[in-house]
Write a structure and sequence with these properties.
This protein is mainly beta and 202 residues long. Helices cover 6% and strands 62% of the residues. The chain has an 8-stranded antiparallel beta barrel. β2 and β3 form a beta hairpin. The chain is elongated, with a radius of gyration of 20 Å. The two termini are 33 Å apart.
Length: 202
């Protein structure tokens, strides 16, 4: 994990020397997440959980059409659904239905390539290195923690549009490539999408 952070930091430092005459822009961004999870094996009738993200970004131009955009973002994610509870029911042959929510918050470090298709309109794609900071499963029973992996490797695909070169509106599809949860909930991967706005300083 430390090696990953070091590689990212060195990349961010070295990239500006590639095209130093182009203008580098720093900024802030925020928005709303709508997230879920594949094959979670502990909930059914799953629904998207609404969360938020907030962070900082820097756009490093390599040419007029291509930029690299490293970010650091706090992202509130998770899943909502129903949990089947195994105990003797008051009504024979039935099982109680318990509504549950699993909150997973990450510090995410995406490193995106931005390809400008037309003026101010870009396609974004790249890996995301996600570090868990909060793991809380809540239902009608005592809250559980320590169900999720501490690190997730994921990806981001999206579109963004610059308004007057400073304000940015964007939408992204978020996907996890590694398991989000520990055993016995293997093959549980985060996915979802986000919409938000940003501001790039001059």
């Amino acid at each position: 994990m430390k090696k990953i952070i070091l590689i990212i930091a060195v990349t961010i430092v070295l990239i500006p020397t590639v095209k130093s005459q182009e203008k580098i822009q720093f900024g802030v961004k925020g928005g709303v997440n709508f997230t879920n999870m594949t094959s979670n094996d502990y909930l059914y009738d799953e629904k998207y959980k609404t969360g938020f993200y907030l962070g900082a970004t820097v756009e490093i131009p390599l040419s007029k059409k291509l930029s690299i955009q490293p970010e650091i973002v706090y992202s509130s994610q998770g899943i909502k659904g129903k949990e089947l509870v195994n105990f003797i029911s008051i009504v024979p042959g039935t099982m109680p239905v318990v509504y549950a929510e699993h909150k997973l918050d990450y510090i995410k470090i995406p490193v995106l390539a931005k390809l400008y298709l037309v003026k101010n309109f870009s396609f974004e794609i790249g890996p995301s290195f996600n570090f868990l900071v909060n793991d809380q499963f809540t239902s009608d029973y005592p809250t559980q923690t320590d169900l999720a992996e501490k690190f997730e490797f994921g990806g981001v695909i999206g579109l963004s549009y610059k308004v007057k070169s400073n304000f940015v509106v964007n939408t992204n599809y978020l996907i996890g490539f590694s398991n989000a949860l520990k055993s016995p909930f293997e093959n549980s991967k985060n996915y979802g999408f986000s919409v938000g706005i940003g501001y790039l300083f001059k």
